[in-house]
Specification:
Elements (H helix, E strand, L loop, with lengths): L4 E11 L1 H14 L5 E3 L7 E7 L2 E7 L7 E8 L2 H10 L17 E5 L5 E5 L10
Parallel strand pairs: 1-4, 5-7
Antiparallel strand pairs: 1-5, 2-3, 3-4, 6-7
């Protein structure tokens, strides 16, 4: 049986340090959206977020980036089966892209044009690791 995939609730906009403040100001001051500062737990250098309807757009300052990048989230019902399915289609796991929070059952992959995707269980499906 093949695993199922569906869109997640998060998009991460990875931003160079020099563009982080102006990008956050664009959403806050120009578009008038409520932007909140967030603690990334040390995964990125600085983090903020804004709600875009049912999707959360995360602004991640990454000091060693030279250009902006978008990262997407996919939910699956079975991470191990999804990983095997993707590998059978030539899609390699790239967990070196960014660390995961402790206990998260997930893997990083990229689509054919290099856009990173996290493949993970939905929050309600995550069970604490033992």
């Amino acid at each position: 049986m093949s695993p199922t995939f569906r869109g997640g609730h998060n998009i991460a906009m990875k931003l160079p340090k020099a563009q982080f403040d102006s990008t956050v100001a664009f959403y806050r001051d120009v578009l008038g959206m409520e932007v909140t500062d967030e603690n990334s737990g040390g995964v990125v250098d600085q983090c903020a977020k804004v709600q875009l309807g049912p999707v959360t757009l995360w602004f991640d300052r990454v000091d060693n980036y030279a250009r902006a990048d978008l990262w997407l989230e996919l939910f699956t019902d079975d991470v191990d089966a999804a990983t095997r399915h993707l590998a059978a289609h030539g899609v390699a796991v790239q967990d070196e892209l960014e660390p995961f929070p402790a206990g998260m059952d997930a893997h990083w992959i990229s689509n054919p044009v290099g856009i990173p995707h996290i493949v993970r269980l939905a929050d309600e499906d995550q069970s604490p690791s033992s």
